[in-house]
Amino acid sequence: MFESLQDRLGSIFSGLTGRGALSDKDVAAALREIRRALIEADVALEVVRDFTDRVREKAVGVDVVKSVKPGQMVVKIVHDELVEMLGSEGETIDLNAPSPVVIMMVGLQGSGKTTTSAKIAKRLTGRDKKKVLMASLDTRRPAAQEQLRQLGEQVDVVTLPIIEGQSPSDIAKRAVQAGKLGGYDVVILDTAGRTHIDEPLMIEMADIRKHADPHEILLVADSLTGQDAVNLAKSFDERVGITGLVLTRMDGDGRGGAALSMRAVTGKPIKLIGTGERMDEMEEFHPKRIADRILGMGDIVSLVEKAAENIDQEKAAQMAKKMQEGKFDMNDLADQLHQMKKMGGMGGIMGMMPGMGKMKDQMAAAGMDDSIFNRQLAIIGSMTKHERARPDILKHSRKKRIAAGSGTNAAEINKLLKMHRQMADMMKSMKGKKGGGMMGKMMGGLAGKMGMGGGMPGGMGAGMPDLSSMSPKEIENLQKQAEQMGLGGGGMPKLPGLGGPKLPGLGGGGLPGLPKKK
């Protein structure tokens, strides 16, 4: 979503951070470029003006111009103002109300309200252990109620039975009543939309609000619609009164202006963002983490949280046991490839790593993308059970059969076998060792063999805490640790291979491992 803006700001800041001192003229020139970059990213003009005025006010002070690293100070000021623009503190859906908590979903047709309703329901049932009831109030769009029912079955959430001929307000009243009688914690009302804002839509939304008395009214907006999404938010807030925003398709190739503008224009927090089509691809909106991503500082905490959610703890325990015995076969390698795919693949992981934007592009240009995972898994899948357990028996005739079955060639099979041998040797060298860092070292080794650096956060780098035993407080402290190491806040130091001096502890173009858990 923010790649073009990230590239533009990155080039602006690289010119600033390379200088020993900055003049007022340097700052003014940089601000002109920042203004242009934000406008090209489709940020609202009034928001751009306020943003650059606030940055200029702080950036032309004596403390900045005479700073030892004035360029990095300007980066920090821009970072802090981005966080302020997006909303200093991230806010989540408020469930602090008498049960059932009624959540009303509003927005235009095609913005993703129905799918988002199901994603939120899955999140509340799975993560927060809430009993959720969903109800479709969309009586206009053909099969809209049936769509929500099918999504409910998919995410294992109960939906209100469909009664033909009922009005949206009647359905809302029935849903709230069913929520009370059924002992539900949350009732989600999926309302109808239109292709554009009109008076009948607003009257219907106001009527539903009057009868359902929702605790949260969430506006679902497509982040690819740019300034139209900002105008939409203003209109809904003025007529219906929204409590928060949900932005969908944040994984798209839009310029990100809507996300940067909506909070500043409406004053309403962005509570959730849709990051993909799958039902589990919904994240809380953290202003600081988004600002870090925009400025190329990465998002270590989100990566760790994603790893914690996706790593199978039972398999991790089995792997740790095998590692203590010094064993590692093709089945184990396939498990780790699947884990990395679940975390978003190569692009998703590298997008959250500080300073990895350029390397991500270089790897894509070299053909090192997520298709590598699929080819390697296809190779392993074409092996027999015996061959996966004993890859050393693979000779020419077997490789020829595997290549034909997987649609690959002998060279790719040999590369995979070489990677496996190197990792198996590493397992043998760790035989008998204990501690939660073993899994991290193993996955760090896998990342290195895949060309992704010598150390990765989120359970993939040596020295990272064992994710299966991390407490929420420890995850919360990771960002502070990252900032102390220079991975956020005050500007990202340059990584090896991307220009600039090498940093201690950086091996093979990777990141330093975060401090071990005490």
UniProtKB/TrEMBL annotation:
Its EC number is 3.6.5.4. InterPro entries: AAA+_ATPase (IPR003593), P-loop_NTPase (IPR027417), Signal_recog_part_SRP54_M_sf (IPR036891), Signal_recog_particl_SRP54_hlx (IPR013822), Signal_recog_particle_SRP54_M (IPR004125), SRP (IPR004780), SRP54 (IPR022941), SRP54_GTPase_dom (IPR000897). Residues 477-518 are annotated as: Disordered. Keywords: Cytoplasm, GTP-binding, Hydrolase, Nucleotide-binding, Ribonucleoprotein, RNA-binding, Signal recognition particle. It catalyses: GTP + H2O = GDP + phosphate + H(+). Signal peptide: none annotated. Residues 269-282 form the SRP54-type proteins GTP-binding domain. It is found in: Cell inner membrane; Cytoplasm. GTP binds at residues 107-114, 190-194, 248-251. It is a peripheral membrane protein. Composed of three domains: the N-terminal N domain, which is responsible for interactions with the ribosome, the central G domain, which binds GTP, and the C-terminal M domain, which binds the RNA and the signal sequence of the RNC. Part of the signal recognition particle protein translocation system, which is composed of SRP and FtsY. SRP is a ribonucleoprotein composed of Ffh and a 4.5S RNA molecule. Involved in targeting and insertion of nascent membrane proteins into the cytoplasmic membrane. Binds to the hydrophobic signal sequence of the ribosome-nascent chain (RNC) as it emerges from the ribosomes. The SRP-RNC complex is then targeted to the cytoplasmic membrane where it interacts with the SRP receptor FtsY. Interaction with FtsY leads to the transfer of the RNC complex to the Sec translocase for insertion into the membrane, the hydrolysis of GTP by both Ffh and FtsY, and the dissociation of the SRP-FtsY complex into the individual components. Belongs to the GTP-binding SRP family. SRP54 subfamily. This is Signal recognition particle protein.
